[in-house]
Amino acid sequence: MSRLSPLADRARPESFDDIAGQTHLFGEKGILRRIVSRGVIPSMIFYGPPGCGKTTAASIIASKCGKTLHKLNATTASLQDIRDVAKDTESMFGTDGVVLYLDEIQYFNKKQQQSLLEYLEDGRITLIASTTENPYYYIYDALLSRCSVFEFKHVDAKDIEKRVRQVAEREFPELTITDDAFSAIADSAGGDMRRAITMLEVAEGAADIDKDNNAVITKELIYSLTPSSVQSNFDRDGDVHYDLLSGLQKSIRGSDPDAAVFYLARLLEGGDLISPCRRLMVIASEDIGAAYPMAPVIVKACVDTARELGLPEARIPLVNAAVILATAPKSNSAYNAYAAAEADIHAGKGSEPPLHLRSPLFKGYKYPHDYPGHWVDQQYLPNDLVGRKYYDYGENKTEQAAKVYFEKIKEFHKK
After folding, report:
1. Can you tell me the distance from the alpha carbon of 391 to that of 406, in angstroms, rounded to the nearest whole number?
2. CA pair distance 396, 42, nearest whole angstrom
3. Shortest CA distance to 274 belongs to which of 117, 20, 50, 36?
4. What are the phi and psi torsion angles at 256 (to 5°)?
5. How far is Cα 291 from Cα 287, in angstroms, rounded to an integer?
6. Nearest CA-CA partner of 248 in 262, 235, 234
7. Shortest CA distance to 293 belongs to which of 402, 374, 410?
8. How many contiguous H segments (helices) and E segments (strands) does the chain have?
9. What is the mean pLDDT of the segment spanning 140-154?
10. Which tens digits make up the pLDDT trace of 320-352?
11. Which helix (H) or strand (E) holds 338?
12. Which band of pLDDT confidence, cut at 50, 70 and 90, is reported for residue 228?
């Protein structure tokens, strides 16, 4: 590869052993490594964050299976590009089929995705598509059902440092890089291998010259190349990052909108959009719950909007969600109810529902809609759990109103 190519491209691994992280996929017992070793690969979807090895893995897989690799990006590719790839199967180089690596497949519309089906079904093309978004949201069922989905994860800082050291030794043998500089690169990369290699390349061009006229990369140089927000939000073990998420949830749970906004801003300014989106959706059900049943709906709308907008505009719907949740009434009654039921299940209780709830005849079942108030007294829990209470109404307006409503209905049926 040309010396003019970015270092991240020149330093791409050529074997599974050199891929940083992803041991669940490419380690000694990794699932993809085992699949490829058998020589027949299915169409696949690689799902994961940027810089975690998706493109590299596709190249290695195609090489190991002896197939011609074509690369397209869904942001610019057209239907004609797909047809041109299919035509290559008619040449002497494509007689064994071709691998099409389609990056950012979420940008293909339904028609474009469906255009791939014909080639996948007759085996002319083996598709390896990659996406940073949840494939079950962005890829249509017809295509999804023909592919195996594999999740790539952020690369651990230790794995990043190990790979950066290997690349530096090979590409810049005369360059002095301090141990804490390697650590700073790995910590500042935020799980993105490509970002780490790019940082190394930039640092090499900006290296300090010591008194002996040697080029040196220090921790201070790396930090001068790294936005302060990234430095503050990521550390070697990811502890700071998860502390911020914990701070976000506990601030909302404690009804402190100011702290909630602060922790959300720390996460977003560090470039992390996905984690706060997920955490806000969890909070809506775990900590607000039945006290404000619309909370999950509102938060989901804010999250969807944020993902469509991307950063920096995503901060606007997300801060709305955080403030709404922080100032909403709180209840964990449903969360506690599930935990109690889970404990009984793990203890081996409740293995058989009552006979009148079981098909095919439902003998003895009383249809509640046939009774006043759409309620009738009958057994629903298994025999060994009769009388067990899982759910307690929370001390909030919504749940207390529901409690009063059902108490009135039950009192009516006693008369």
Report:
1. 14
2. 53
3. 50
4. -115, 90
5. 9
6. 262
7. 402
8. 21, 8
9. 90
10. 999 999 999 999 999 999 999 999 999 999 989
11. helix 333-346
12. low
